[in-house]
Design a protein that fits this description.
Layout lengths: L2 H18 L12 E6 L10 E4 L5 E4 L12 E5 L4 E5 L10 E4 L5 E4 L16 E5 L4 E5 L10 E4 L5 E4 L18 E5 L4 E4 L11 E4 L5 E4 L12 E4 L21 E4 L5 E4 L2 E7 L5 E7 L3 E5 L4 E5 L10 E4 L5 E4 L7 E7 L2 E12 L5 E4 L5 E4 L10 E6 L11 H22 L21
Antiparallel strand pairs: 1-29, 2-3, 3-4, 4-5, 6-7, 7-8, 8-9, 10-11, 11-12, 12-13, 14-15, 15-16, 17-18, 18-21, 19-20, 21-22, 23-24, 24-25, 25-26, 27-28, 28-29
Helix pairs in contact: 1-2
Length: 445
């Protein structure tokens, strides 16, 4: 191949690749999706809940203002009109509560606390239901124990499982009182029943509804303050927590758990603890923020560490996108934390979305059209603001460009090369040349 032809082919290939876009190995932020500013909330919300209703609207309920005072105010986001409207106020002001969409389209809100940074703070056991059809709330039976920062999951049979949380205010000098760690709400009976036995008293655990209807509870902090590696499974059919010996790779609490399309569960961030001994032989926990993540495979009963996100994550959000990747936003301990994408097909790298956010205790809700609405949370200017993230359809964060575009680019390169060389009139045969050292050397560009 002549030097001219080689140079023309190289130029053609570069032109073709330019036509198809950047190489996937570059993992640029634009490949993961796009952010757009959404209308501001009517009020600032921190430690609130966001629930996707059956009609496609999103209900924001309660939380606190920027001063940590709990509110009963609620609002609705209408994606079609792209605006917020007032919703009926809750009966009780609350933050750090849980909200669950019921089978009939109503929303159950349970527990919470009367503030985040004001004292005294009361932890709540009461519950209420929002009725979208009439835009109002009604009180329902209270839980057996007060709870804040707990998990609430609707089971396949329509009941609601509530797990964990603590029943004392943050900063209290008293240890958390022993309490039944799980209970179930029966909407038809308006009753809470204890959900079996066998689950240790934990807080800061994460609960995940599995495809078979069981509920996986991972990690948590024990009543002595140590992070655990435990993974427990609730069986709705028997109403029991069968004993397990499935340790996670890292003890953690305050993490997020996201069910992936292949049935594995991605655990992100949180705290771990180390033992430290003081005089008198007393051992107490020393907390450390985590930048690690792991995937838990229930079928193989294993926890496997995956790539580092670099950013310590706590009180963040992790949301499964329509293309099978996970969007992770925010951190309580990293100002302007970069929003990142985790790709289960490439577990070694986290991809930047190009949008740092100073927010935590926010919500991230997948809309009916696949977009993600990120709303409120603590952070400079964050409580009243919202953002919308749109993933790239059919493309994981690291999958690059479809093969059809790459093929089109290479074809274009070949056509350019043939055209240029043909018009140069230099296609006459020449004796084969010896490859010189300079010709066979790669150079950085």
């Amino acid at each position: 191949m002549t030097a001219l032809l080689r140079r023309v082919l190289i130029a053609g290939v570069l032109t073709g690749l330019a036509a198809t876009g950047p190489l996937p190995a570059q993992a640029k932020a634009i490949e993961s999706g796009a952010w757009t500013a959404a209308p501001n909330l009517l009020d600032g919300h921190v430690g609130h809940t966001a629930t996707l209703l059956n009609d496609g609207r999103v209900l924001i309920a309660g939380g606190t203002d920027v001063h940590g005072v709990a509110t009963s105010r609620c609002e609705l986001f209408d994606p079609k009109a792209n605006r917020w409207i007032r919703a009926g106020n809750m009966i009780r002001a609350r933050a750090a509560h849980a909200a669950t969409l019921l089978a009939d389209g109503n929303v159950l809100v349970s527990g919470g606390q009367t503030g985040l940074s004001i004292f005294p703070i009361q932890v709540l056991s009461n519950a209420e239901i929002y009725h979208p059809a009439i835009n109002s709330w009604t009180a329902v039976a209270a839980m057996h124990a007060p709870r804040r920062m707990h998990s609430s999951i609707r089971l396949h049979d329509g009941r609601v499982l509530v797990v964990g949380g603590t029943n004392v205010a943050p900063g209290s000098p008293l240890a958390a009182a022993q309490q039944e760690q799980a209970e179930i709400y029966h909407p038809q009976l308006d009753r809470w029943l204890i959900a079996g036995t066998g689950l240790a008293p934990l807080s800061g655990e994460a609960a995940t509804l599995m495809p078979d209807g069981s509920v996986l509870v991972t990690g948590g902090s024990s009543d002595s303050g140590f992070a655990t590696t435990g993974a427990e499974l609730f069986d709705p059919g028997t109403n029991r927590w069968p004993p397990t010996t499935w340790p996670m790779a890292t003890p953690r609490y305050g993490h997020t758990a996201t069910l992936l399309p292949d049935g594995k569960v991605l655990l992100v961030g949180g705290y771990t603890t180390q033992q430290q001994q003081v005089s008198g032989g007393v051992i107490y926990p020393v907390s450390e923020l985590l930048t690690t993540s792991e995937m838990f495979d229930l079928r193989g009963n294993t926890g496997i560490r995956v790539g580092y996100s670099i950013i310590p994550r706590f009180e963040h959000s992790a949301t499964l996108l329509s293309n099978g990747t996970v969007l992770v936003v925010g951190s309580a301990y990293a100002s302007d934390a970069d929003s990142q994408i985790f790709d289960p097909k490439n577990t070694e790298q986290w991809v930047s979305t190009g949008m740092p956010m100073d927010r935590y205790l926010h919500t991230a809700t997948v809309l009916s059209d696949g977009r993600v609405l990120v709303a409120g949370g603590f952070g400079v200017g964050s409580p009243p603001t919202t953002w919308m993230f749109s993933a790239v359809p059919g493309r994981s964060a690291q999958s690059g460009y479809p093969l059809v575009l790459l093929a089109a680019g290479l074809l274009l390169a070949l056509m350019i090369a043939i055209s240029v060389v043909a018009t140069s009139g230099r296609l006459a045969r020449r004796p084969a040349a010896t490859i010189r050292h300079d010709d066979s050397t790669w150079i950085d560009s």
